[in-house]
């Protein structure tokens, strides 16, 4: 299994008067523009996915939609509350085990610090892996057999600029 993990793009700041509900915060115009460039870089990397799973919050939905539009316009996006900032990673891993195959290529779109915690849990079996996972950053994990705890190898972690500069 190849697990690609994408942090959502630049969103309206938390606590904005226009969006009192955190889940309603959208990407900013700058965030949309940057995500389009990131999606183009992902296309240049010739990435494709069997499954795209996203948090249902507005900013992650928009991020997933921008990527799918550029890479695989016919690809459907599935939403999981377990990819929300307060999601349960063990429940989410069990969802993946139940729905995805060992050879699948999966894109997850979510939030920090949840995503770095998920990566650490899959790579180290705990929360000890420290990383700076920027908005629009992309990580690739390889997994022979998905399970709860240590089961993955981190292949790479790219900054948004590195993804945008792919050519």
Offer a quick outline of the entry.
The chain has helices at 29-44, 58-71, 89-99, 114-124, 160-164, and strands at 2-7, 51-54, 78-79, 105-110, 138-143, 152-158.
Fold and architecture overview:
- By secondary structure, the chain is α/β, with parallel strands linked by helices.
- It is 34% helix and 19% strand.
- It contains 5 helices and 6 strands; from the N terminus they run βαβαβαβαββα.
- The longest helix has 16 residues.
- The chain is globular.
Tally of individual helices: 5
Main pleated-sheet profile = 6 strands, mixed
Helix and strand element order: EHEHEHEHEEH
How far is the first residue's CA from the last residue's CA? 25 Å
Rg: 15 Å
- Proportion of helical residues: 25-40%
Relative strand content: 15-25%
Number of strands: 6
Low-confidence stretches: none
Question: Mean pLDDT score, rounded?
Answer: 96
Biggest sheet, spatial arrangement of strands? 3-2-4-1-5-6
Helix-strand makeup class: alpha/beta
Form type: globular
């Amino acid at each position: 299994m190849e697990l690609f993990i994408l942090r959502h793009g630049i969103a309206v700041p938390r606590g904005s008067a226009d969006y009192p509900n955190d889940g309603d915060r959208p990407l900013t115009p700058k965030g949309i523009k940057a995500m389009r460039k990131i999606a183009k870089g992902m296309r240049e990397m010739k990435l494709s996915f069997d499954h795209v799973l996203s948090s249902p919050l507005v900013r992650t939905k928009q991020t997933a939609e921008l990527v799918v539009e550029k890479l695989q316009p016919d690809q459907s996006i599935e939403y999981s509350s377990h990819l929300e900032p307060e999601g349960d990673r063990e429940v989410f891993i069990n969802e993946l085990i139940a729905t995805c195959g060992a050879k699948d290529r999966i894109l997850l779109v979510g939030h920090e610090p949840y995503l770095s915690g998920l990566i650490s849990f899959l790579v180290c079996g705990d929360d000890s892996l420290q990383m700076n996972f920027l908005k629009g950053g992309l990580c690739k994990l390889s997994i022979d057999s998905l399970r709860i705890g240590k089961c993955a190898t981190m292949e790479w972690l790219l900054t948004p600029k590195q993804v945008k500069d792919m050519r």
